[in-house]
Amino acid sequence: MLGVLPVVPVIFATAGAPSVGFAQQSNTGQSNTEQSVQTTPVETNNRRQLPPTGQRITPNLKIEPTRGVSVENRARESYTAQGIRLGAFIVLPTIRTKLVYNDNLFATPDQTIDDFILDLEPGVRVQSNWRNHALNASLSRKIGSYFERSAEDYEDLNVLVDGRYDVRKDSKAFMRLGFNHLHEERGSVDDVTGKNPTTYNLYSAGLRYEHRLSKIRLLGGVGADVYRFDNTETSTGLIFSDERDRQEYSADVRGEYRFFEQYGAFVSVEGIDVDYDIRTAAGLLRSSNGYDIKLGALIDLTGLLDGEVYGGYVRRQYTDSALTDIGVPVFGASVLWNVSGLTTLEVDLSRGIAETTSIGVSGILNTSLDFVVNHELKRNILLKGELGYTDAEFRGTNRSDDVYNAELGAIYLLNQNFSLEASLKYTDRSSSTSTQSYEQTVGSLTFVVKM
Prior knowledge:
With 451 residues, this protein is mostly beta strands. The chain is 3% helix and 57% strand. The chain has helices at residues 8-16, 33-38; strands at residues 84-86, 89-102, 115-128, 134-146, 154-168, 171-183, 199-213, 216-229, 232-234, 237-239, 246-258, 263-276, 288-301, 305-318, 326-338, 343-354, 363-378, 381-395, 400-413, 418-431, 438-450. The strands form 2 sheets. The protein has an 18-stranded antiparallel beta barrel. Strand 11 (246-258) and strand 12 form a beta hairpin.
C-alpha cells in the first residue's frame, strides 16, 4: 500500500489542472441509456454571496421543501464550493480520502478474511456557465490500497463528457460520451475468484432528444455500451475473458401527458440488442435481443410527493437455444416524499432483467425494493438511513438469492471546502447455492476537499 502513496500528489495535480477540463463521474458498469443520457447537465449560477463572518448557522424549522428535490440534494449556499472561474467555465477540483473496513473481503460463507482499505479519489469537474446550451466534463481516478491483501489493490478511471443543445425553448438535445476502467467487486455473481480482481473497460455513448408541447412531453434516444474484459489468473490457470466481451445497444421512446398539474400518464417502449463477440468455452453464444414496454402514472402533489408508478412487460430472446428465453410482467415505482422541510423519504421499486455470464444462466430477473430516509439535523449535518431487499432469480438454473441491505450514514459539512462522511453498511445474501451465501459489514470514514 505504501508504494502507492508517493504518486498521489502527482495524480491529484494532473486531475486538478485546468487543461484537463472534464467533469462529473459516470456510471460504473451498468447499461442504462435513459439514466446516463437523459440527465440534464448542470447549469451553474453566478458566484453566491457568503453570510457575514461569524454568523451562526442554525436549523430552520420553518424551511420549505424544494419541489422534486430531496433534503440530501438541496442547495446549501454556505457549504457549496465556488470553484475556479475560467472564462465561461467553472473548474471544480475534488479529492476524497476514504478509510474503509471490510469484515468479509471475499464475500464468503465461512472462513472470512477482513482488511482495511485506503481509497484515494482525486478528480476535477468542469461545467459551462452559459445562458443557453451546456457542456460539462469530468475526470476522476480511484486508487484502492489494502493494508494486508495487496493483491486486491485497484486503480479505476472515469471520464465523462456530456452536453445539452437548446434547439428552441421547448426542444433540447442531449449527448453523452464516457470511458471507464473498472474492477469487478468481490461477491459479484460473475466474479471468477481470480488472484486479482477482474478488470475491464467500458465505453459508452448516447444521444437523446426532448420536446414539450403544452401538456405533452416526448422523449427519445439511442445508446451503446461496449465491454472489454481483461484475462484473469486463478489458482487453476488463466481464464480468457474474451467470451465476456460484448456490445449492448438500446433505443427508446417515451410519451407523457399531463391531465392536470398533479397527475399524468406515460408510455415507453425500449428495444435492446446484446451482441457477444465469441462463444463461451462451453460453446454457448449469449447474444440476445428484446424489448421493454411500460405504462404508468405521473404524480406531483405540490412538490411534497413526486414520482411515477408503472407496469409493463419485458422480453428477452437468446440466440442460443440452450439459453432460456425470458418473458415476464414488470412493475415499479419511484417516489420522493418531502415529509417536511427537514426530512425526505424515497421509495424505489423495480423489476427487470440483468445481464450475466454465470454458467448456465440466461439472465437474472431482479425484483428490488429500497427505502431511503434523509434528515437535516442541522444545516450542515445530514443523516441518512437505507433499507433494501432484492429477490434474484437466475433463469435457466434453480438458483435464487435473497439479498438484504441496511445502511446508516452521516455527512458533516465543515464549510465550503471541507466535509466529513461516515457510513456503516450490512449485507446478507441468502442463496439456494450455499457457497454463494455470505454476510458482510463495511464501515467507512471519508474526508472530502473541494475548491
